[in-house]
Design a protein that fits this description.
With about 400 residues, the chain is mainly α. It has a single domain (about 1-395), classed as Growth Hormone, Chain: A (Up-down Bundle), CATH 1.20.1250. Helices cover about 80% and strands about 0% of the residues. It contains 16 helices and no strands. Helix 4 packs antiparallel against helix 5, helix 5 (about 85-110) packs antiparallel against helix 14 (about 325-350) and helix 9 (about 185-200) packs across helix 14 (about 325-350). The longest helix is centred in the middle third of the chain and has 31 residues, at about 200-230. The two termini are about 30 Å apart. It comes from Sphingorhabdus arenilitoris. Belongs to the major facilitator superfamily. Bcr/CmlA family. It is found in: Cell inner membrane; Cell membrane. InterPro entries: Efflux_drug-R_Bcr/CmlA, MFS, MFS_dom, MFS_trans_sf.
Length: about 400
Amino acid sequence: MMASLMAINALAIDTMLPAFPNMISAFGLNDANQVQYIISSYLLGMAVGSLFYGPLSDRYGRKAVMMPTIIGYALFSFACSYAPSFEILLILRICQGLCGAAMGVLVAAVIRDQFEGDAMARRMSMIFMTFMIVPIIAPTLGALILKFAPWRVIFDMFAALGIILALWIWRRLPETLDPANVIPIQPDSIARTWKAIITNRMAMGYVLGSGMAQGALFGYLNASEQLFGETFNARDFFPIGFAIIAIGIACANFTNSRIVERFGARRVSHSAVFIFILMGLLQIIAAKIWPNSLPLFLVLITINMAMIGFIGSNFSSIAMQPFGAMAGAASSFQNMVRTMMGAVIGALIGQQFDGSVISIAIGFCVCGGMSLIFILWCERGKLFTRRRTNLEASE
């Protein structure tokens, strides 16, 4: 269930990618890069929405917040299918993202209600691994729909899935919020909570580092269809190529779930950051020497994206570690920062697309380097350490 809830956001993004050429034609867009805002607008809505659901769920419970937001997701999805203009579609996508944001925040809070430290990282990695099936099949699903129906039917599918999930949550999800951890919604209390999160050097360092990694990921997502269609002249291969890359991320999450409790979230994720930077550098070299080699591009970017599988769940669990009694508010604020950073940076990277891989490769290097700087800052220069959780310390 948790994996399905997280997966609707991946579905809302990745299923749309094969429809980009159809949407460019339908709305008469002069600049093909403009269609990328279909992704960025949804991510922007997710970022803003993430700020509110944590405090609401800390007060009213996880399930009480999930129900109306998943229904709202379904309604706005249905409205998107009738958008008369590109501008209105972007507004509706923001609203759709505002509702979808609840899923990312509340899934993390539900897991944090029950686990912490490396154990939480293992569960989160398993959830990520399960929901990564969606990016593997989503572009193929979108392409399949386009063979038999207009691109607007994709939004109708989102609406139907939202209703199904709402029924599942209503019937099967218990409330995980401990009554002892209920936090009233008070502006001064929320301000203190946000201050505690912002001033926690360790947590913010990993949030900012994760935001940079997400920026690289979103930059690739924004330009992925154009990369396959224009750079490599392989638009029909796009769903398969996208699936190969997504399988790499899924395998990384599965591997992480098996090794993180043995080696520790820091050691695993810090190693991944260095490999991520190295792969970005190799992407630049390859783009200069073999600019039209699709096989080489697939190998390098699959490794690059796989590193995000080791970075994302581990960075998130480390950043959440100090906030057991305020898991909802902490998850909410941290998701807002990560997603806002990722959306803005990803949009900037995507808009630099000029028909080559160079802009994406440079984005990987810069984002990886900045992520490393943030981690060096919060860890005070000491990488690859392992710290005991509160539960381990008390045993």
